[in-house]
Write a structure and sequence with these properties.
Blueprint (H helix, E strand, L loop, with lengths): L5 H7 L6 H25 L5 H25 L5 E3 L34 E7 L2 E3 L2 H4 L3 E8 L2 E8 L1 E8 L2 E14 L5 E12 L2 E9 L3 E4 L2 E7 L8 H8 L10 E3 L11 E3 L1
Parallel strand pairs: 1-2, 2-4, 3-5, 4-6, 5-7, 6-7, 7-8, 8-9, 8-10, 9-11, 10-12, 11-13
Helix pairs in contact: 1-3, 2-3
């Protein structure tokens, strides 16, 4: 059984002598969290929905604790892409702007602040290079009628309050967290997916554990068969996620019956 202590991990990192030692410790913890996720996935057949939710919330909390520890003890240059009123197709540069924590009433992940932040954009096509997002935690917030391209291997992706958008995402070695992302289409590969308060959205997904939805309706899930950009297969191989894809295995925390949930379907 994998055991992970988020408090001891965060407090012991500063005591380590070098960044190499800190990275090795964080890497070890991430391996343990992966083992914990596998254990939870294998146990879902005999756990109650309440127990599954508690277990998944615990794994999510550890992912967030690792991200916070990394940001505090191994800070990396942050990028923020702010919004204006321009409505032209653009490939945004990488200004050295420090991202500030964001949040708001009703945000399930409101305490999260990414290393790469894209916020308050409308009617734009955004290309974010793999060099800017490699292994990093990315936050997309308050986007409307945008098309977003993010190739490469990301650490985690949080997407909040995005409407009528199209997302073509590379590979997320950790978790995908979505809330209030209605009328949008996602092409994405990830280790786990948590989707909240989202309606009328389509997912072409490659996920190694079950996707979990809560307070959602009108979701459609299909298998990601194409990467959508050159180099996707190489990114998938580098991420270590492998060929396993549970794209059609979705848990709805608002539907406890054995019958198919009315809140999602396969395509």
């Amino acid at each position: 059984k994998a055991v992970v202590s988020t408090q001891s991990t965060g407090s012991s990192l500063p005591a380590l002598g070098s960044d190499v030692e800190k990275r090795e410790m964080l890497s070890g913890v991430q391996v343990q969290v992966g083992q914990l996720q596998v254990l939870l996935n294998e146990s879902m057949t005999f756990l109650t929905p309440h127990e599954i939710r508690r277990g998944q919330d615990g794994v999510t909390a550890v992912h967030h604790a690792i991200a916070r520890a990394q940001q505090e003890c191994l800070p990396r240059k942050k990028f923020a892409f702010g919004g204006g009123k321009k409505k032209k197709t653009t490939a945004p540069p990488a200004p050295a702007v420090v991202a500030t924590p964001v949040g708001g009433e009703g945000d399930r992940f409101s305490k999260y602040s990414g290393e790469v932040v894209v916020t308050d954009r409308a009617s734009e096509t955004l290309h974010i290079s793999r060099d800017q997002t490699a292994g990093k935690d990315v936050l997309l917030r308050n986007l409307a009628s945008c098309t977003v391209h993010i190739p490469g291997v990301l650490g985690t992706l949080h997407c909040t309050n995005c409407t009528n958008c199209t997302f073509i995402i590379g590979v997320i070695s950790g978790s995908l967290f979505l809330e209030r992302c209605s009328k949008s289409t996602f092409t994405v590969t990830c280790q786990q997916a948590r989707i909240h308060t989202t309606e009328d959205a389509t997912f072409y997904i490659h996920v190694t554990s079950k996707a979990i939805i809560e307070d959602c309706k009108g979701l459609r899930f299909g298998e990601r068969k194409e990467g959508g950009y050159e180099g996707y297969l190489e990114d998938l191989s580098a991420s270590g996620l492998g060929e396993k894809n549970n794209w059609s295995d979705v848990d709805d925390f608002n539907w406890l019956n054995k019958e198919q949930s009315p809140n999602w379907t396969t395509i």
